Amino acid sequence: MIFGSVRLQPDRDQETHVIANPYAIHVGTRDPREVIDTTALELHRLAGRIGAARLATPRAPGKWSAREILCHLAVWEIVFAFRLRQALAEDRHVIQPFDQEKWAPPYQSLDAHAALATFEQLRKWNLALLENVTASQMAKPVVHPERGEMTFETVVETMAGHDLNHLGQLEEIARRS
Ligand code: NI
Predict the structure, then answer these.
(1) 10 within domain boundaries
(2) How much distance in Å is there from the Cα of 137 to the middle of ligand 1?
(3) How remote is the CA of residue 18 from the centroid of ligand 1, in Å?
(4) How many domains does the chain have?
């Protein structure tokens, strides 16, 4: 699945967040801003369908559970919060990559609802920031050491693509009942 400039691999938990081509923006059928506006609601809906008893069940052997996915989304919202602000504040901000698997071990002992509440509040704060971003700020250059040059807008598209990838995984867990 291609969303924006993000190549998604919905069959994997450890999606690579690879930018297919930072210069060629594929226009998806959905507006990235609309996606990121509604993700928290979608997560609540899916968490409800999955139910407390199944939150810790792996999606498949060796794959993340819904709880781990929610923890991962909360953590990524912290990362996006930092990247968005640095991208606005600095000239040609250079993104600092990190190994998301090395951040994952604590997820097994964290609370899924706390993760969702954290995601929801941070997302609101990030959306409030985006409300006031101008067109020229959206076009501001950002550099990723592995993926090359992109713009502030690419970071927003990446948020939407990342949301959709994990919403799809949660949908898969919710359907299996
Ligand atoms: Ni992810």
Answers:
(1) no
(2) 25
(3) 11
(4) 1
